[in-house]
Structures are given as structure tokens and as C-alpha cells.
Design a protein that fits this description.
The complex is a heterodimer of chains A (540) and B (61). Among the domains of chain A are: 226 residues, 3-Layer(bba) Sandwich (FAD/NAD(P)-binding domain); 102 residues, Glutaredoxin (3-Layer(aba) Sandwich). In chain A, 49% of the residues are buried. In chain A, the strands form 5 sheets. In chain A, strands 1, 2, 7, 8, 9, 10, 17 and 18 form an 8-stranded mixed sheet that branches. Chain A has a 7-stranded mixed sheet with strand order 5-4-12-13-14-11-15. Chain A has 540 residues and is α+β, with helices and mostly antiparallel strands. The longest helix of chain A has 27 residues. Helices cover 28% and strands 26% of the residues of chain A. The chains are: A alpha+beta (540), B mainly alpha (61). Chains A and B meet through helix 10 of A and helix 2 of B.
Amino acid sequence: MVGGRYEVAFRLYPYRKVAEQDMEPRRHRVVIVGGGPVGMAAALDLGLRGTPVLLLDDHDGPGLGSRAICFSKRTLEIADRLGCGDALLEKGVQWSVGKVFHGAERVFEFNLQPEKGHKYPAFINLQQPYFEKFLIDEVRRAQSRGAPIEIRGCNQVTGLRERSDFVELDVETPDGAYQIEADWLIACDGARSPVRDMMGLGFDGRVFEDNFLIADVRMTADFPTERWFWFEPPFKDSGQSALLHKQPDDIWRIDFQLGWDIDRKVELDPAKIRARVDAMLGEGAQYDLVWTSIYTFQCCRMEKFRHGRVLFAGDSAHQVSPFGARGANSGIQDIDNLGWKLSMVIDGLAPESLMDSYSDERVYGAEENILNSTRSTDFLTPKSEISKIFRNAVLKLAQSHEFARPLVNSGRLSVPCVYEGMPLNGPDLLNQGPRQSRVGAPCPDAPTGQGYLLNRLPAGFVILTIDADAPAQVTEAGVSASRLALSAPEDASGALADRYLGAAASGVYLIRPDQHIAARWPEFDETAMRAAIRRAVGKD
Amino acid sequence: MPLNLAPNIPDGDGFYDELLQAHQGLSKEQSEAFNARLILILCNHIGDREVIRQALRAAAG
């Protein structure tokens, strides 16, 4: 039987038989396995670039349950590039006040005032099925405008054979099996990736395992839109930590960290869950249990994310603890990195080896996420007596001394990876240029006088000039970069100059299609620009 | 600035006495918690990661 592993929240791509099922295997440019947020973002990114994609999912819509609920600024910026950033922002919940407790004591309270001059906030809370639905809505809009994207629901990949320069797939459907071929396969099929298993590939570096009990409750009573986090919560049987935060539709997400050795069945008993939630929310709290689940995770990653013509993205390639919202967010960054590269390779504009840089750059990102996640875990669940003594000392000091508050680690919120020192990077010659826009960093957003900078970046490679001259377009080895000309005085707030010039009078940036900075100089130098473009597409 | 391992505390005996006084009456557990807080406060005051790294090495013996 195809599907049925989970219930779907929305049936958005019901099974339909296609003629291909009764034909000889047909070759596709790109096949994506898995229709979760990462697979759907991949389909949209490639489709919008005109690269034909076929997405196979073994269900017919996003799975039920809130799951990944925190979407970071970079994810929203990528979604904006894909067309659905505004919809996400409108539906999502924004919060700024957080409270940290240790046992029954309040440790401190913080208010994250967003930095001005960015289109998107640091993060929003939103149930994962909505995130997926907005992406699928955008896929439908792109299709209606001619984007070559096809989604086949209830199509389960059951077999895979690697050939010299393509992959053969066996696909099971409600009407029986058929075969297809793919020049490139993107495996976005989740933490238990069947593709990874079928290829006999390992998932290395397991450093941590735990179970989380998740309870989504609906409360209409006034309860502040704040994030509450408990170390060693005082409520009965509540585990190592607990988290309460708000989602849209009057839903509150409660996470209890239960430890490794638990009986899932006992823990999922609604009466037991209600007893925990009652203890957390206080006597007499009125709520409905909407969705509950036990989530098990580990920290690990594949050694490489590219294996011949198969690319792994999202949870199939790497997994981290949920602290810091680094799961779905890093998967979306994988696609941001992968889309333009694969599209250029397929169009013959870049060598196939460019796909190795996808693996190199995103392995680097995954390592950073695993490091952050491991550090949070060490703080949350101290592994030795002395580590617990220090942890509790930090929590105690944080009550009265500001210096200790940044040491409290209940998860460091996902920030985009800076591809520092990676092979595609060109020179960073802007003397004393701002650190946040150094080579390898994603472009910081900024006001420009005519809307936000990221909105104004043309598709493809961009030559961003600030108070500097440059041609309208530079084409090198078939790859074109178009100029966006800005002037610092256009932005009265000064943020544009702060973020892109620092002490310099002018700046010229080469920006990749994923909005990461490839090189920067004080002035335009044609020879250097051409060399940087070649390097950025792996032709150096 | 490198870590100062030369004598630097005026009235060393007085300091030593004050340090022990601070632990007076504390259980082993309370003393350990006190020490942890003291280390964190002093490290923050120093601030310089390289100096702290040298101190960690010197303490390791």
C-alpha cells in the first residue's frame, strides 16, 4: 500500500494516473523524492529557474501535526525569493518576550527588539503544514505561469539503481508499479530516508539522543504571546526541560524533554499528558488537546551530501536536536544552495563538479548546526556532576547579573551559515568592510529608498554597486551577472552604508543567485570580476 | 596581555583568609556551587579568551 504512514493535514496533490505508468521508462531531468518543506522548496526553486522537475511523494499532502514550528529570518527571505514570504509572515505569529525559569524560580526575562531595516523578523512561529501549504500554493501559481513542475501524489519510490550518468527508479502507485529514469535525483525523504537506505549509505556521528513529548493545545483564554522555557521544570514528571510557545489559530505548543529511556505508549496516554499540561498551565486552565506526539531525534549527518547523481537535502542528509530551530530551516538553506547550482549544471553553464560544492558548503552548515545543537544539549542535560554545577551557577547568576544571561543556552536560534573560506569564494578586498557582509555571508537585508535590498536583487548573479561604477551586465563563460546600482544616501537611516560600506566610500559586491556574497572590492575591476564569476560557478 | 603568573595580590595572607572565610559554614555542595559562580564572575571580568585559555592551561598543571 502506498502512503498511510501518517494522516495528512490537507489533500493537496491527490493521486492521478499518468500515461507514463503504461509506457517504457522515461528520462526526467530532475526527480525529487519527498514532498515535505524541503522537497517542495526544491521543486519551486528549480521550476522557477525553468529546470523541469518531477516530485514524487508517497502521500497526497502535508502530514498532520505542527512539527517544525519556528521559521527563521533566512527561511522567510528564501521563501520571499520563491514568492510566498508575505503569506508566511501574515499567517505566522511574531513574539519578542521570553521568560526563562529554573525550577519554580524565574531566572530572567528578555525582549528581543528586532533590528530595524529588514523586511523579515528574526523568526515566526507557524505550524509546518501551513508552511508546506504556502509553498504548494506557490507551486500551483508557478505552474499556471508555465513553470515546468509536476507533483505526483501517492507515488512511492521502492527501488533505485545507479547508472553511469542517471538513476533508475521503481515507483509504486495505487495502480501498480512503473519505472522512471532521472538525470539527477534529490532525496528529500526525511530522517529515515528510504533512498539513503536503498543506496546503503550511512548516517554518521550520532552524538545525542532524546525524546520529546509534544502537545498542541488550543486555549482561547488570555495568555501572553511569550516564549516560556523551564530548566528542570517544577511540575510533576515533566522531564529535563519544558517549552511553551504560541502558534497561529490560538494553538500553544508545549514540549517536554523526557529523556532517552521511556515507554512511548504510557507517555502518550491522554490522561497522563493532561496531568502534565495541567501542572504547567495551573489549576483550572481551559484547553483542548489538539495534537500530541513523541518525537525522537539524534544529531548526525551523512559524510557527503552528493553521491554521483543523487543529492541529499534536509533531514535525509542531517539531523539535529530541535533546540534552535535548525531542522527545517537548514533544509531550506540546503535548497537555496542546491537550486541554482543544479540548474546551471543542467543548462551546461557549470561543470558537474559544482555539485560537490553543494555538499562541501552544506556539510559545513550542518557541522555548525550540530555544534550549536550539541552545546545547547550539554547545557540542557549536563553530562557530568561538574557540568551540572556550572550550569546551575550560570542560571543562579543570571537572576541578578546581566553578564551570565548570554551564557544561558536553551537553543541558539538558527542563523544562516557563512560559507567562510570555501572554494567558490572570491577575494574580500573591501578594506575594513563590515563583517556581516564579508565574503561567504548571505546578504544582510537593508532599506534602499525604494523597498528592501533583497527584494530588489535581480535573479541570477548580481553585481551590487554602492556609489561605484560598473557595466549594466558582465557575461563571463556564458554566465551573466546583472548590476543593481545603489547609493548610500538613498537610505536615510544609514543602515545600507552600515551593512555594506562600513568605513569605505564605495563598494562592489558579486552576489550569487542564493544571495550569498561571492567577492567584494572597493571599486569595479573587470578582470577581477570575471575571475570571481568563473570561480563562483566552479570553472576555476 | 599574557596571563600574569607573578605575585599580584596585595596582602596575600589577607586575601587567602578572605577566600576561606567566604566558604565558612558551607557544605561541600554549596562550596562547589560557590566556586563555580566565582569562576564565572572572574572569567567574565577578565573577558580576554586568550588569557582565560592560558589560565585553564596553568590550572591543569
